[in-house]
């Protein structure tokens, strides 16, 4: 059975390939330089200390580089960390699989994609179907959607996590639609698919994602609406089309009321927009909570969940 970084316990030796997620340099009391590294593989991330760093090491150890380490696990202030004894860059001959270095959705990507395609096929609106088909047929967008996470830290923050989030929302939406006939089915499904499409350009990459300059200056809600507008122009769909306006409204309001300060450009003003906001909240929060509970050790009863900004109880 393959052993990953977070599987090792205090005192154990770790010889493994991992991905450099973050890097900070420091100077020790003896004036020697050291590095604080955040290293990751598919089990998650762990902090590591590398002492007596040479200028050459500082140059080739970079964020998003793959390295092989020989390290010891120690516990510092209640948390496991690695003390690196030896480190080298991975070589092509090592044949390291990227899927072993980053957390991955537990649902196969092809299974998720098939569910997405089936939903698009079921749309009755020719306008919304055309917009989504254009999105999915664009090679760059399609490839990003099959790989990108839904975020850097908060929820579905793993390989093809955004696609998992979309399909989870579609499943939840389908379950609730019969209870709320005032909701527009096709606009709701289109919002599930496109609400975070701007994240494909708000985030830098699927391996060690950070926020891009456009992502920080504009944000994924506005970026997503810009993408929808661009597609409408390409397909000669009027920007004033009622379904297009409704879709854009749902995207721009899906972070909730403007007064909350969570990033919405406008507060939800239709049943569809309001329902989608709460669906998105449920799915994102439950995913983040699930990750928090999964990361807890057997003897932990409480843990802090960043997405909820509070400690949560595991229960029985």
TrEMBL record:
Residues 163-283 form the HD domain. It holds the Pfam family HD. Residues 21-89 form the OB domain. The keyword Hydrolase applies. Keywords: Hydrolase. SUPFAM superfamilies: HD-domain/PDEase-like (SSF109604), Nucleic acid-binding proteins (SSF50249). Coiled coil: none annotated. GO terms for biological process: rRNA 3'-end processing. It comes from the Bacteria. This is HD domain-containing protein. Gene3D superfamilies: Hypothetical protein af1432, Nucleic acid-binding proteins. The keyword Ligase does not apply.
